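Extended Data, panel c. Modelled sequence:
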Amino acid sequence: MKKLPITLALAVLFLTSCKNSEEDILPKGDFENGILISGEGSGAGTGSISYVSNDFTITDNLIFKDVNNLELGTFLQSVAFDSENAFIVVDNQNTITVADRFTFEKRGEITTDLSTPRFMAIAGNKGYVTNWGSTASATDDFIAVVDLLTLTVESTIPVGNGPERIIERDNKLYVSHKGAFTTNNIISVIDITSKEVKEVTVKDNPDEMYFNSAGQLIALSSGRTIFDADFNVIGNTLGSIATIDTTSLSITNELVFELGEHPSLMVLENNTLYYNLGSKIYAIPADATSLATSEIITAEGFLYGFEVEGDNLFTLNANFSDVSDLNVYSIATKLKTQTKEVALGASKIYFN
């Protein structure tokens, strides 16, 4: 076998290296390096996804519809991501639509063996989806185990009523049970290998969950408002932020809200917990032993979702009859820096 001259070999190596470097930096699609906002939709229009560039110079609504000439339907509940794909969960349609996360070209869908799907966690080539089942039944709720290679539900794991958020860590699934249209007060802990389910009791209506730097689970419970048959308020239960040891499944710290206060959103960023009471957003260290006494920002309009990235606090002023607003605030100055029109019924923010 003849050897390449040294100069030619070096040239080939240089060109190959340049090609690989170019491939590494080539854009993956129009919706890379930006902010994605999912909108639930309503009777006024379908669920949809908006894109806002990181420098806020580009806003593009209805990106899935524009790329595929297809509607997603209502209600678009959440989006999960792996390194290449976006998994768009639409609960009223009992579907999960799979799209390239950077181009939003449709790649497939799951349309069977789901029943009011809500949220999805991904571990390896499996997806784990919370399902409410029939909202008329409190005993048919489950986690659907999805083979992401074939886009089929391969098995189910029965769980308590109203499973909502789901996250994976160390081969375990953690599921908050908001209770669907009723109420619940548990977090399920599921061993992925054995399918064994354990439960942790917390305050009513747990929802948002994160892991802190010590590997403990932090869960927000909203508490609930109690109504009589005529929908008059006759009482409340307590909300809390609970820190849970994932080995003993015991609550190691619990910050309890005043009776009648119902936090609904929480974000963990840079070891700081951000949570809301109505339109007011508060911040405390992740290991705080007391709640904040004053807000850092009061969001404009109907606060339906928020996220934090660096110094930016992103809030969604949701509108269910027209476009919603994405507002951006500087945490340092407390001033609003950007407003962009985004999806109908905007509810969740993702960084792509």
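The two ends are 48 Å apart (CA to CA). This feature is highlighted in the accompanying rendering.
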